[in-house]
Amino acid sequence: MPTYTLTVNGQEHAVEAEPDMPLLWVLRDILGLTGTKFGCGSAFCGACEVHVDGAVQRSCVAPVSGVSGSVVTTIEGLSEDGTHPLQLAWNEVNVPQCGYCQSGQIMRAAGWMKDTPNPTAADVDANQSSNLCRCGTYQRIKEAILLAAEKGA
Amino acid sequence: MYGLELAGVIEPRTNLPGQLTVLNVSRRRFLKTTALGAGSVFVLGVFSGCSQDNLADWPDRAEPIGSLEEAGFKPNVFVGINEAGDVFLVCSRSEMGQGIRSSVPAIIADEMGADWDRCHILQATGHPRFGNQNTDGSRSIRNHFDDWRKAGATAREMLLAAAAQTWSVTPGDCSMAVHEVRHADGRTLGFGELAATAATMAVPASPAFRPRNEWRYIGTEIQGRDNKAFVTGSATYGVDVQVEGMLYAAIKRSPVLGGRVASVDDSAARAVSGVRDIVRLNEHTFPPAFQALGGVAVIADNTWAAFKGRDALQVTWEASDHDGWSTGAQRAAMDESVRAPGTTVREAGDTDAATVGATQVVEATYHIAMLPHAPMEPPNATAWVKADGTCEVWAPTQAPQTARGSVAGALGVDPEAVTVHVTFLGGGFGRKSKPDYCVEAALLSQAAGAPVKVTWSREDDLRHDYYHPPSAQYMRAGLGADGAPVSWLHRSSFPPIGSTFSNGVTGPGARDLLSGVSNMPYVISNVRFEACRAIAHQRIGWLRSVYNIHHGFSVNAFVAELAHAAGRDAKDYLLELIGPDREMTDLFPRPPVLDTARLKGVIRRAADEAGWGRELPTGHGMGIAGHFSFSSYVAHAVHASVENGQVRVHRVDCAVDCGTAVNLDRIRSQMEGATVFGLTIALKDGIEATDGAVTTGNFDTYRLLTMAETPETHVHIMDSDLPSGGVGEPGVPPLAPALAGAILQATGQPVRSLPIRLT
Ligand code: FES
Ligand code: FES
Question: Could you tell me if residue B654 is inside a domain?
């Protein structure tokens, strides 16, 4: 089995995996980083989103062979202690219901807000609607994103 | 009266909600099991519905979710206090987004006088000693509010008694402050200082509940206890469980219900790197109940290899009775069924004669597609059948006791040999009340001789669910000269949940029509309600609000159509139809009884908040619906528009009367979520099937509402000090019919089928 190098949340790993194994399963089953979630496996829901070299990526459809040598940030590495402005805002407006989609939601927002740090509600709709939440927390996600922006995400 | 021969028993054994047994167990097992010091800890065991057998031996089984292990304290009780004054509260209900790990412990803490910030929440494993743990039916608070209060009140009185003894004063001189007892002269003793003495106090026979004006947490906005775990990725869901030496499994199940494996070619699957073994699982028998479906399993080193191996299996299936099933054929069969009279489950007056004499007759047939649960975390479970015959299961389950029993049954062991650890649930909606996936994991662990995690793909989930039944409903009403109905006929056809648990079920029964059909709240003299034949071709199960989904839809949508036909305002017409204030004890012989004043109350509130009756642009409309379910009343006023055949929902006003509100924030969030859930049902997709097999496979064909499609949602909670009602489910039923009413007003076209397809 080939070996791939990944820097995940600042730590370098050499992982042995089949080339087609999606980054999602490398993170979850090999590295034990289970904060990144499996929701659909086919790029439909966004539960698996992480940052690869700073860009939002659906890890369920990113073969490890294609991201070798990359710098990966997962929800566990977004902040040291859960104090990223989005995480704080999420807590403040009590966004999570079951919470399962929320790591993907937060990673997505943290990604596009680098380019759009002061979004309008319409910007949030446009950038965040690709991420599904079966519990229906959308209204609060939007509120939290706008709150975080106000406080300087 | 039956009492247990143990110290501190204060109530007879019973399974009734609102009744429980409190034991002072401070000096029992804790001497041995806690690291916090012998005899120094105050611990109350609070049990409902447990038997003497269950209490005879107490394995040390309550497990914390998250990071409470450092407390070194794993009690199998509801309330504990250590010398440092930390309070431990056990949550025996499953957390799936409704916030129960915040709401239930907050009730106990409030009655106790504990400081919420010094309380730690432990998650109960599945065991009868915890009383009913089935987290469905929106029951955690409506059935157990007084149980939780009693647990807290008992602790409070024992702490007060301990302080009085310490000070050699009468308890009347002591009062409960926050996390400490205060003497009239100003002296205080903290919970930690009192714990050891409190442990020696007699358990009070009937502790008084605190008056409402002393509540500090109940009825407030309670911050989510687990928010941090959710937003940092540290919350452990079932699918995140990792056990030393664990293998991973995926299963190929028959695409058609009842299909048995005819042949397997597993050569390609075995060639997949990381695949360890292929295991045949026996097919289920009928009725399927909670059995594993069976099929062919791939055991592998990781989830990806298991999925790949499973996809590489070549399996052929024997013919099944359900090979000919398709969504279209089933709908046609139900349509035919409701065209003819069914079995009358209730009748008053003479509906047919009154219809003949009516000024106007309105008829409509309503349909709702078969629906999946689709929790964002697909079903999964990890099991470890050990050499000594015991089994541990880690699962996102709404029903840990059912899981325990089903696993024990499948393994042929005593339920006491099975421990079910409850993880966080990435959504449940009723799917995770059915522990078939736990049984799969246990059988595979037994076969593999190692811990096994079985993970369902999204396709597995959407194709092998316990579906909400598809339905057809025929409604007919005769209107008098004043536009009010003089007759009402409702026929309902859908394969009922009973078909999953009994053979030979050919349609709904009288009980199945109680959710808003035969006990609907309108004053009409001539009524008839009929149950019509429908055959199940899949496992049918309960989905968030169950039959209220289709019955709440048809009944409310039909009333909007009648108002339209009569040229009347939909809200006024609805309120007039509900008629005078009354408790409907005739049609609800047992609690909860529908109180029409409360139903009208939420309808008026939703309408007022929405600005009902205001001028709307062309192409816009407003609809309203109200429904009683799970002891609560919910009304939705929906403002929508139709442009170029596209429905847009602009705003939803939701009024909810759930009696005494415990956690305002989670009531609101459940109503917000129910709005999205209801709009997904109304606007997105149903489950499709041909040749006996579900073709819907993932979120491309079962689409969920997105953020951009989510309307501004305003939730209005009615003030009430009546007993608490449910919150998780009752927000779903009125949404779709209120939207149908809005579309009717906007376009003049009735909506009779969900999901809505405007042509
Ligand atoms: S799991 Fe990757 S998009 Fe759904
Ligand atoms: S919070 Fe449950 S899926 Fe989003």
Answer: yes
Q: Report how far Cα B309 is from the mean position of its chain's Cα atoms.
A: 34
State pLDDT tens for residues B84-142. Answer: 888 888 888 899 999 888 888 899 999 999 999 998 887 887 877 777 888 888 888 88
Element (H, E) at B110: helix B100-112
Residue in B665, B677, B707 nearest the CB of A94: B665
Task: Note whether residue B759 is domain-resident.
Answer: no
Task: Note whether B103 and B22 are same-domain residues.
Answer: no
Q: Which residues contact B57 (CB under 8 A, 6 or more apart)?
A: none
- Dist. CA B307 → ligand 1 center (Å): 15
Q: Of B396, B368, B432, B427, whose CA–CA distance to B673 is shortest?
A: B427
Going A15 to A18 to A21 to A25, the CA torsion angle's sign is: negative
Nearest to A96 among B230, B240, B707 (CB): B230
Residue B330, domain member (yes or no): no
Between the CA of residue B158 and those of B118, B258, B514, what are the distances in Å?
19, 57, 45
Integer angstrom CA distances of residue B281 from A16, B14, B405, B427, B441? 31, 39, 19, 27, 11
Altogether, the residues listed in chain B come to a count of 759
Residue B536's pLDDT band, with cuts at 50, 70 and 90, is very high
Q: What domains are there in chain A, each with its CATH number?
A: 3-78 (3.10.20.30), 85-150 (1.10.150.120)
pTM here is 0.92
Give how many domains chain B has, as a whole number. Answer: 4
CA–CA dist B468, B689 (Å, integer)? 14
Query: Structure tokens of A83?
Result: 């104090």
Contact A63, A22 (CB under 8 A): yes
B63 in a structural domain = no
Q: Does A61 touch chain B (CB under 8 A)?
A: no
Task: Give the whole-angstrom CA distance, residue A102 versus residue B325.
Answer: 38
Domain residues for the domain of B8 are 3-56
Query: In this prediction, what percent of chain B has a pLDDT beyond 70?
Result: 90
**Shared-domain flag, residues B368 and B386:** no
Q: Which residues of B touch A47 (CB under 8 A)?
A: 376
| Mean pLDDT of the region B27-33 | 37
Please, which pLDDT band fits residue B425 given cuts at 50, 70 and 90?
A: very high
Specify whether B426 is located in the same domain as B572: no
∠ Cα B347 B566 B595 (to 5°)? 50
Looking at the structure, tell me whether residues B407 and B301 fall in a common domain.
yes
Q: Are B314 and B357 found together in one domain?
A: no
**What is the predicted pLDDT for the residue at B7?**
23
Number of H helices, E strands in chain B: 19, 29
User: Cis before residue B375, ω within 30 degrees of 0?
Assistant: no
Q: Which of A42, A57, A132, A134 to mutate to test the pocket of ligand 1 (most atoms within 8 A of CB)?
A: A42
Are B488 and B421 in a shared domain? no
* Range B507-525 average pLDDT: 96
Question: DSSP secondary-structure letter at B283?
Answer: P
CA–CA dist B669, A97 (Å, integer): 8
Same domain, B439 and B472: no
Its sign, for the CA torsion B131, B136, B140, B141, is negative
Same domain, residue pair B556 and B689: yes
Closest of B448, B391, B415, B23 to residue B204, by C-alpha: B23
Of B97, B493, B566, the residue nearest B333 (C-alpha): B493
Under DSSP, is residue B564 helix (H, G, I), strand (E, B) or coil? Answer: helix
Burial class (CB in 10 A: 0-12, 13-18, 19+), B484: middle
Chain A positions in Cβ-Cβ contact with residue B429 (cut-off 8 Å): 134
CATH of the domain at B404: 3.30.365.10
Summarize pLDDT for B185-225 with one digit per residue, the tens: 999 999 999 988 888 888 887 889 999 999 999 999 998 98
